What we know:
Elements: E1 13-19, E2 26-30, E3 39-40, E4 42-44, E5 47-57, E6 60-68, E7 71-73, E8 80-83, E9 86-93, E10 103-104, E11 114-116, H1 118-128, H2 141-156, E12 173-174, H3 179-189, E13 193-198, E14 203-209, H4 210-222, H5 229-233, H6 237-242, H7 244-250, E15 251-252, E16 256-257, H8 271-281, E17 285-291, E18 299-306, H9 307-318, E19 339-340, H10 361-370, E20 375-379, E21 385-390, H11 413-419, E22 433-436, H12 442-449, E23 456-460, E24 467-472, H13 473-480
Parallel strand pairs: 1-10, 11-22, 12-13, 22-23
Antiparallel strand pairs: 1-5, 2-3, 2-6, 4-5, 6-7, 6-9, 8-9, 13-14, 15-16, 17-18, 19-24, 20-21, 23-24
Amino acid sequence: MDYARESGGKGLTPARFVWPYGGRSVYLSGSFTGWSEHWLMTPVEGCPTVFQTICSLPPGYHQYKFIVDGEWRHDENQPFVSGNYSIVNTVLLNREPDYNSAVLSPHTTSGSSMDVDNETFQRVVRVSDNTLHDPLPKISEADLEASRHRISAFLSTHMAYELLPESGKVIALDVDLPVKQAFHILYEQGIATAPLWDFSKAQFVGVLSALDFILIMRELGKHGSNLTEEELEGHTISAWKQTKLYLASQSIDHGKILSKRLVQAGPDENLKDVTLKILQNRIATVPVTHSTSDDGSYPQLLYLASLSEVLKLVCRYFRHSASSLPILQLPICSLPLGTWVPKTGEPNRQPLAILRPNSSLSAALNLFVQAEVSSIPIVDDNDSLLDVYSRSDITALAKDKIYTHINLEEMTIHQALQLGQEPLSYGSTGQRCHMCLRSDSLHKVMERLAKPGVRRVVIVEAGSKRVEGIISVGDIFRFLLS
């Protein structure tokens, strides 16, 4: 089977295949080559990490894979099936030639934690070919308000109980547990927060989060002390929440106190109110509880509601009617959304917190507290994205009791990230970094953020992966509900 490549043919459709993260050698193979022939892909001029090839294929259904440095790769985010050659990607080509409907594959090389949107690198090639110079689209104030009103109306008419899964578990911690044990539980269960239950009061009284452990380690680090097992064993969660050590570590940012009463929601509260509770209180989750008696005692913990779960419902509801919401079609660079790297001459823009791999773990913990961010892009000397260090990654220090013998000033971000890397379980992608381009639509970014485990996307420059900004789930809702 031998179809034309990079040349026209009667009844054939040109299709561009792109591998955007390079390697020493990249080949394409598929059903159109009989799987026996491998077609060499060449670097795009000006983008040495982006490989491409243009094939003229007959219209219809095709399967394909990439061979990068001798290893077969498929794109987990494009349509795929299990075939005779393990998992393969699929594409359906139309009869009309269309170079802009290129077929793409993201980077999936061994050991990488990157996850890159395929359509991002469709535009990489188009930009390098100097074919994309359209001005930014604009939206009228009326269309903007109409879109926001429709989303607000949806949230106001749907309730918190709709977030509850058909099955699952919710973990709560006794306030009398030692901090050490709580630290290990969060790590072993793979969670960043847990509600706190007080048996003496028969009620939920707070939430323990990764930020608590950051504050503990940061405060003890100031006194030149490592966090020993004895120190953790000597503090119950309740004692930690009440001690002067805790209050002192909470007094940050010009005396602002972060200690707050427990914020919770009932199953019948509408999603707009739940969302506003999370945003206004600057918290990650809201426990959804239900009282089994008239006096409100012995509440049941039903679920931990997060903005990610709410966004998933929004995306599911508007998935087939996104075109009716003009705001969703706009590129993110045209919206007052997220945190961006300031450009020369731009005043009053909050700088984006970034760190190098050799920065100290202490520097990262200080940024989490002082800049009140939940994640920090880790970049190389060219400011190209390497990884992301998130607040929840601190729980990896519970692995093998690492917290008992580390020095926060001496441990680097690179070393801390390696602590959290585990062998991939079946069905796990192991992806940590989720990226997009400034030209991606709001709808595309929302769909990406609605995926399980994704809380933020890093905006990168096409080809170089130079960090340009970051958008979180919270940013999306602050914009939609403003």
